[in-house]
């Protein structure tokens, strides 16, 4: 053996090699209770897997006696994979539900007198039956909200009798009066009992009951699992905590990992007090902070620290202040726009520029507060030929309520094309499916549905401002064009995601958009200071998704020509400069250049052709091609359909519709 080989760390020592000082302290703390406060980008997964591996290699843990609990199957799989790479197998890494199901399936004959009951496959069907029994009129959105209320009640350990008072105290926005929701909740539980089924919340509840009430079960489970690790502990709800306490049985061999700054799921029942109060519950707990951020540049980290530093100090564990470990990068940008379409166009143009410069589209994200905001960005990215993927929701034109509305609009257009004003016609059609202007319903799913339908009305308003004579038939044609453009393959595209859906992810370049009061913080949070602060943490999560480039933007009006009175988000006070940076997109600059010389002449002729084509089809001009695409044509002068198809904004459908005409226009301009 060489001297170098003799010096190379082995076994337990090798597990700690390569960790920074804070990570090493956490990994070496193998005896509980331990609380690891892990800030964004600080390597928490690396730390907890090395901690488990170190405990195994030092003989403190037997792998099969360790249970690591996560919130997603993907995270559990990642834990197992990393442990395997560290030479540790046999550790149980599972979600709460997967761990409970495994245990309950084994103990069901002893606890329930038979095999594990079937799980409810379609909760909405059972909720719908319960709602019908109480003569409640529901649609799919209100059913989803009812199901959400029942899940919230069960995860917070509220019974049907408890629900009304607990819901009012928590400021819940239920789709019906609390007493009506409680009645449906009770009927739902009775239906499950009659059918002999369990839902996913029951898995945790019955497993906890088995451990609490059956000594033999508790003895066997606690003998099997002696060391526990819980990831994302700030997101634990009372039901999960009850099961965790049942697993522990009064023992303290527990390591929890979490970040109080990333508490953004209180509306689902998550209770950050379990993390914040951990040291009070376990006075001898070792608390280790991970603050070295390896994800983001110091500029992004500095902004994140400043943002969260403005929040009121919460009692409990010490705070976290991230320290950027990467090389310096660009300063975050704050951009103000006159209206939402202008904001979306600027973001799309910036994405186009990043992609053209060599940054993969998959390394770019556009983050917004509510899913309904995606529509304008889906359209803007399609207009400049940048592919996208929508995470955590359906594409705008694939949402059930949008598909239903488009069908109704198409039917209305076929039945009447009498030149009636477009916007009132659209409002009338959507009113037939329960949409009421300026009256968003309570409940998340119902509100999302209302916002999607409102987005269609807003789109009609925008188009009429540009083309006052647009008919309902022309509007339907415009919707079809947009839907076709947005159904192109988008696997490697820019990510469009809500801020909630973005948690746990990261990109090189992030655009955080729509930052106006009433959207972030969202309007329904404004009556409760604690809810407003959760909205601040949501923005913190969005900011810390960026590795290198971060842009935060807002618009003063919703539509072009509207009053520019919307206040930017209160969370930007003290962060954004008082004098907003004027926005001039790359596309706008290129238009100014293209308008000179032969390319400028071709550009103007293409615009004239586009106007005539759009008028003949009764669609807005930019639905044919936007200015960026016309510029690209004028600059490159494509000589074949293949060359034309390579330009931004020209998909297969537009190539089929307009390709030959465009080539003819270009050919007519070629010099002799």
UniProtKB/TrEMBL annotation:
<keyword id="KW-0347">Helicase</keyword>
<keyword id="KW-0067">ATP-binding</keyword>
<keyword id="KW-0378">Hydrolase</keyword>
<dbReference type="InterPro" id="IPR000212">
    <property type="entry name" value="DNA_helicase_UvrD/REP"/>
</dbReference>
<dbReference type="Pfam" id="PF00580">
    <property type="entry name" value="UvrD-helicase"/>
</dbReference>
<dbReference type="Pfam" id="PF00570">
    <property type="entry name" value="HRDC"/>
</dbReference>
<feature type="domain" description="HRDC">
    <location>
        <begin position="596"/>
        <end position="672"/>
    </location>
</feature>
<dbReference type="InterPro" id="IPR013986">
    <property type="entry name" value="DExx_box_DNA_helicase_dom_sf"/>
</dbReference>
<keyword id="KW-0547">Nucleotide-binding</keyword>
<dbReference type="InterPro" id="IPR014016">
    <property type="entry name" value="UvrD-like_ATP-bd"/>
</dbReference>
<dbReference type="InterPro" id="IPR014017">
    <property type="entry name" value="DNA_helicase_UvrD-like_C"/>
</dbReference>
<dbReference type="InterPro" id="IPR044876">
    <property type="entry name" value="HRDC_dom_sf"/>
</dbReference>
<protein>
    <recommendedName>
        <fullName>DNA 3'-5' helicase</fullName>
        <ecNumber>5.6.2.4</ecNumber>
    </recommendedName>
</protein>
<dbReference type="InterPro" id="IPR010997">
    <property type="entry name" value="HRDC-like_sf"/>
</dbReference>
<dbReference type="InterPro" id="IPR002121">
    <property type="entry name" value="HRDC_dom"/>
</dbReference>
<comment type="similarity">
    <text>Belongs to the helicase family. UvrD subfamily.</text>
</comment>
<feature type="binding site">
    <location>
        <begin position="38"/>
        <end position="45"/>
    </location>
    <ligand>
        <name>ATP</name>
    </ligand>
</feature>
<feature type="domain" description="UvrD-like helicase C-terminal">
    <location>
        <begin position="298"/>
        <end position="548"/>
    </location>
</feature>
<feature type="domain" description="UvrD-like helicase ATP-binding">
    <location>
        <begin position="17"/>
        <end position="297"/>
    </location>
</feature>
<dbReference type="Pfam" id="PF13361">
    <property type="entry name" value="UvrD_C"/>
</dbReference>
<keyword id="KW-0413">Isomerase</keyword>
<dbReference type="GO" id="GO:0004386">
    <property type="term" value="F:helicase activity"/>
</dbReference>
<dbReference type="InterPro" id="IPR027417">
    <property type="entry name" value="P-loop_NTPase"/>
</dbReference>
């Amino acid at each position: 053996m060489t001297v170098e080989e003799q010096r190379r760390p082995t076994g337990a020592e090798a597990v700690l090699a390569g960790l920074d000082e804070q990570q090493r302290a956490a990994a070496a703390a193998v005896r509980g209770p331990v609380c690891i406060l892990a800030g964004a980008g600080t390597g928490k997964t690396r730390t907890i897997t090395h901690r488990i591996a170190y405990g195994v290699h030092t003989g403190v843990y037997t792998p099969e006696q360790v249970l690591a609990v996560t919130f997603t199957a993907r995270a559990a799989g990642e834990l197992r994979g990393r442990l395997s790479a560290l030479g540790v197998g046999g550790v149980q890494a599972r979600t709460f539900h997967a761990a409970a199901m495994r245990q309950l399936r084994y103990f069901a004959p002893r606890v329930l007198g038979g095999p594990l009951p079937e799980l409810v496959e379609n909760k909405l069907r059972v909720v719908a039956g319960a709602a019908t029994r109480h003569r409640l009129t529901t649609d799919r959105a209100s059913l989803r909200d009812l199901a959400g209320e029942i899940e919230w009640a069960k995860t917070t350990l509220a019974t049907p009798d408890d629900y009304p008072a607990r819901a009012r105290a928590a400021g819940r926005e239920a789709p019906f009066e609390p007493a009506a929701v409680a009645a449906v909740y009770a009927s739902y539980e009775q239906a499950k009992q009659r059918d002999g089924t369990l839902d996913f919340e029951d898995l945790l509840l019955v497993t906890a009951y088995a451990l609490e009430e059956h000594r033999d079960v508790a003895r066997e489970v606690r003998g099997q699992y002696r060391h526990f690790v819980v990831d994302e502990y700030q997101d634990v709800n009372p039901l999960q905590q009850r099961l965790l306490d049942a697993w522990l049985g009064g023992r303290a061999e527990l390591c929890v990992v979490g970040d109080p700054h990333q508490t953004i799921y209180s509306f689902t029942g998550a209770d950050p007090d379990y993390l914040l109060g951990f040291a009070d519950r376990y006075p001898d707990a070792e608390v280790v902070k991970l603050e070295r951020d390896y994800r983001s540049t110091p500029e992004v980290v500095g902004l994140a620290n400043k943002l969260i530093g403005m929040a009121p100090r919460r009692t409990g564990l010490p705070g976290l202040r991230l320290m950027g470990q990467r090389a310096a990068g660009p300063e975050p940008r704050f951009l103000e726009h006159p209206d939402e379409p202008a904001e979306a166009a600027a973001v799309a143009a910036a994405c186009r520029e990043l992609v053209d410069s060599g940054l993969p589209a998959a390394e770019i994200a556009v983050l917004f507060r509510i899913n309904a905001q995606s529509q304008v960005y889906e359209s803007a990215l399609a207009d400049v030929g940048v592919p996208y993927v929508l995470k955590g929701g359906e594409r705008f034109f694939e949402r059930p309520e949008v598909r239903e509305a488009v069908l109704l609009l198409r039917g209305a257009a076929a039945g009447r094309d009498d030149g009636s004003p477009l916007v009132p016609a659209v409002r009338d059609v959507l009113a037939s499916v329960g949409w009421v202007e300026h009256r968003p319903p309570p409940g998340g799913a119902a509100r999302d549905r209302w916002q999607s339908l409102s987005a269609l009305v807003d789109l009609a308003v925008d188009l009429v401002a540009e083309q006052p004579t647009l008919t309902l038939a022309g509007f339907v044609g415009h919707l079809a064009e947009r839907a076709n453009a947005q159904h192109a393959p988008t696997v490697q595209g820019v990510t469009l995601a809500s801020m909630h859906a973005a948690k746990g992810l990261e990109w090189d370049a992030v655009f955080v958009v729509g930052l106006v009061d009433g959207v972030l913080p969202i309007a329904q949070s404004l009556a409760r200071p604690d809810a407003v602060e959760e909205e601040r943490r949501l923005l913190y999560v969005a900011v810390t998704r960026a590795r290198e480039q971060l842009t935060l933007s807002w618009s003063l009006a919703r539509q072009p020509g509207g009053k520019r009175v919307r206040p930017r988000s209160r969370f930007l006070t003290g962060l954004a400069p008082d004098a907003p940076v004027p926005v001039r997109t790359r596309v706008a600059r290129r238009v100014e250049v293209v308008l000179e010389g032969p390319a400028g002449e071709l550009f103007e002729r293409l615009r004239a052709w586009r106007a005539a084509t759009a008028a003949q089809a009764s669609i807005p001009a930019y639905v044919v091609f936007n200015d960026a695409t016309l510029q690209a044509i004028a600059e490159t002068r494509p000589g074949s359909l293949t060359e034309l198809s390579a330009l931004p904004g020209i998909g297969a459908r537009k190539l089929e519709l307009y390709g030959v005409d465009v080539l003819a226009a270009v050919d007519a301009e070629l010099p002799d």
